[in-house]
Design a protein that fits this description.
The protein is of the alpha+beta class. Helix content is 47%, strand content 21%. Strand 5 and strand 6 form a beta hairpin. It starts with a strand and ends with a helix.
């Protein structure tokens, strides 16, 4: 351990691969007071996230005061320096990477030399991603597997940074657009997963929204609660399947009901007829035209 750090650990990639993104090393340190790096230039990207303490980061002549939850990014070819606080020196975690898509990727996330700070990086996933990067170079994996794992962790880390930066910069119109996007995702989940057991809690967790807030947004957009919308999808699908030769049990399981009796009860409440009565009515009623059948088939019904 050097004299400028009270604690220091680093995992180094012994054979970084070429490509879109390649991690070089990742580490963690508790610095001594006034520990300083630079002014200097690196030929790789280097991201630090502050876990505790304070310090300052300078790039392009601008000084940024950083504390717990702040992340600062060093860019290749850019003169920089950083220094720990005299009284409460920072404890930070870092990773370095290169790659032919790194610049475009960071720019797309809103991370540039003009905007090198990401605030609010206190989600436990972030520290975990850094440590996973560190640990994958300490394992007994063959080099190719270490590289493959590291590429996954760095992408997850950058995704988290991009999401945080987006949240900090979002405006009111953007919030409306974000809510609309969430509802579209919810509708897509229900439309594709209606054969599975879906709960509001599961869907809320998948989309990162509180259950109550998601239900409110969903009803404002569709006029139905998520579970009412799911029931409509299932019953509409069941109506079509009852026009085929499938048994009631098969129709029930195909639209997400493990219990055929419970399905029959819900269908009767929906249509005012049991599945068998509805099927009989279809057989004795007017036939669908070929065009109607073709159109339903085109939509996978």
């Amino acid at each position: 351990m050097d004299t400028q750090h009270m604690r220091y650990t680093v995992g180094v990639n012994p054979s970084p691969a070429e490509g879109e993104l390649s991690v070089l090393f990742s580490g963690e340190a508790q610095t001594q007071p006034l520990h300083q790096m630079g002014p200097a230039i690196h030929d790789y990207y280097l991201i630090h996230t502050v876990l505790s303490g304070f310090g300052r980061f300078i790039i392009r002549g601008k000084t940024y005061e950083c504390a717990k939850g702040d992340t600062f990014v060093i860019f290749p070819g850019e003169l920089f320096s950083y220094q720990a606080d005299e009284r409460q020196p920072w404890h930070y975690i870092w990773t370095a990477f290169v790659g032919n898509s790194a610049a475009d990727l960071l720019t797309s996330l809103g991370i540039t030399p003009e905007q090198p700070i990401i605030s609010g990086c206190i989600h436990p996933k972030i520290a975990d991603y850094y440590r996973q990067l560190h640990d994958c170079f300490q394992s007994d994996y063959v080099l190719e597997l270490s590289n493959l794992e590291a590429c996954g962790w760095i992408r997850l880390l950058l995704h988290q940074f991009g999401a945080l930066k987006r949240q900090l910069e979002v405006s009111e119109p953007d919030r409306d657009n974000a809510a609309e996007h969430i509802i579209k995702q919810a509708v897509q989940i229900l439309s594709l997963q209606y054969t599975q057991a879906i709960s509001i809690e599961q869907m809320s967790n998948m989309l990162g929204y509180h259950r109550t807030h998601l239900c409110k947004l969903f009803k404002q957009s569709t006029g139905l609660s998520p579970m009412q919308y799911l029931l409509k999808i299932r019953m509409d699908r069941a109506e079509y399947l009852l026009s085929t030769s499938m048994t009631i049990d098969q129709v029930s399981s195909s639209v997400g009901f493990a219990d055929a009796l419970y399905f029959s009860k819900k269908f009767r409440k929906w249509k005012g007829q049991s599945p068998s009565e509805y099927r009989q009515a279809l057989r004795t009623g007017p036939k669908r035209s070929g065009g109607e059948v073709d159109e339903m088939a085109a939509y996978g019904l």
